[in-house]
Design a protein that fits this description.
This protein is an alpha+beta fold. The chain has one domain: Glutaredoxin (3-Layer(aba) Sandwich), CATH 3.40.30. Helices cover 38% and strands 18% of the residues. The longest helix is centred in the first third of the chain and has 20 residues.
């Protein structure tokens, strides 16, 4: 029985995600954590070990940094627009959570960082992000820029070096990162988290940061 490349990519990405979630899940003293009442995960080395400065290109072709993009509470996801099912589902959940948060009185920015710069030009990103949500920010860049951002966020992706056609798959992790101004990274969410639970968790962190 043959196994499709998409199943191989999803399986390997899931295995790596499980491994890294296991690495993140270490004991942390809640007494030193201002977000202890909100947090569902604990981070190896503390939350400062994840996230950091980046320089990328937005969907309008402008070079931007993390300081330009992450000016509000933000939900950051690494994926690619040609992803057949995982990325659209995950981003659909994220932007739905943003709409729930809007109704709750919280202004949160959804951010999508492409791990497929070969195909995800600013023009492609703009069409894709505008379709999903009017406030969704799409970011791409050179391979080196994207690799640096992925390394900062401790996330994984792997694209074929010499694809045979335009329908290749990119293996990648599927965590969503919550970033807060003045705090940086504070939490990550698996794709199993519902939009309602995600919104409630984000609201808890935003309130705790005030």
């Amino acid at each position: 029985m043959s196994i499709s490349p998409s199943r191989i990519a999803i399986a390997s990405g899931s295995a790596i995600a499980i491994l890294l979630v296991g690495i993140f899940a270490v004991t942390q003293q809640h007494g030193s954590d201002p977000f202890a009442n909100c947090r569902q995960s604990v981070i190896a080395g503390g939350s400062g070990a994840v996230g950091g400065a980046f320089t990328l290109v937005d969907e309008d072709g402008r070079t931007v940094t993390d300081r330009d993009v992450l000016t509000k509470p933000s939900l950051v996801y690494f994926g690619y627009t040609f992803c057949p099912d995982i990325c659209p589902a995950d981003m659909g959940r994220n932007v739905e959570a943003v709409d729930v948060l809007d109704e709750m009185g919280y202004d949160v920015t959804p951010v999508f960082i492409s791990v497929d710069p070969r195909r995800d030009t600013p023009e492609v990103l703009k069409e894709w992000t505008d379709y999903l949500h009017p406030r969704l920010i799409g970011l791409t860049g050179t391979e080196a820029q994207i690799r640096a951002a992925a390394n900062a966020y401790k996330t994984y992706y792997k694209a074929p070096e010499n694809p045979d056609d335009d329908y290749y798959l990119v293996d990648h992790m599927t965590q969503t990162y919550l970033m807060l101004p003045g705090q940086g990274f504070v939490e990550f969410y698996s794709r199993e988290t519902s939009s309602q639970k995600l919104a409630e968790s984000v609201a808890c962190f935003v309130d705790a940061a005030r």
